[in-house]
Amino acid sequence: MTQERPPATATLQIDAPHVRVTHYLFAPGEQTGWHTHAHDYVIVPVNDGELLLETPEGQVPASLKQGVSYNRPAGVSHNVINAGDTPLAFVEIELLR
Questions:
Q1: Taking the model in full, what pTM does it have?
Q2: CB atoms < 10 A from the CB of 8, how many?
Q3: What is the DSSP string of the chain?
Q4: Is the pLDDT assigned to residue 55 strictly greater than 70?
Q5: End-to-end Cα spacing for the chain
Q6: What CATH number corresponds to the domain at position 15?
Q7: Is residue 65 situated within a structural domain?
Q8: Which segment of 3-7, 63-67, 75-79 scores lowest on mean pLDDT?
């Protein structure tokens, strides 16, 4: 069961027919909340940080490295939590077509 945590701040930067770009800022302990990605997406970490990913299979720790991007396919379901003790930011780029 998901623990109650404050939400991360999501700021929509671009919302175009082919791409959506959102900047996420997490204070320690903040979360995205459970969601399922409808599109393939790329994450670009703004700074280093430690995440806890809650997935249907369980909890998975992950580390982000500033500027080291990664991608995931549509259909991924998870809750992203800042598991570190400093603020964490990343840019999410959704590929809409």
A1: 0.94
A2: 21
A3: -PPP-PBPEEEEEEE-SSEEEEEEEE-TT-B--SEE-SSEEEEEESS-EEEEEEETTEEEEEEE-TT--EEE-TT-EEEEEE-SSS-EEEEEEEE--
A4: yes
A5: 33
A6: 2.60.120.10
A7: yes
A8: 3-7
User: What span, in angstroms and rounded, lies between the C-alpha atoms of 97 and 59?
Assistant: 30
Nearest to 88 by CA among 9, 2, 5: 9
Burial profile 33-68: b = 16 or more Cβ within 10 angstroms, e = fewer: eeeeeeebbebbbbeebbbbbbeeeeeeeeebeeee
Strands across the sheet containing 35-36: 35-36, 77-82, 49-55, 58-64
**What is the domain extent for residue 89?**
9-95
Could you give the number of structural domains in the chain? 1
Q: Once rounded to an integer, what is the mean pLDDT over residues 15-36? A: 98
Does residue 2 lie in a domain region? no
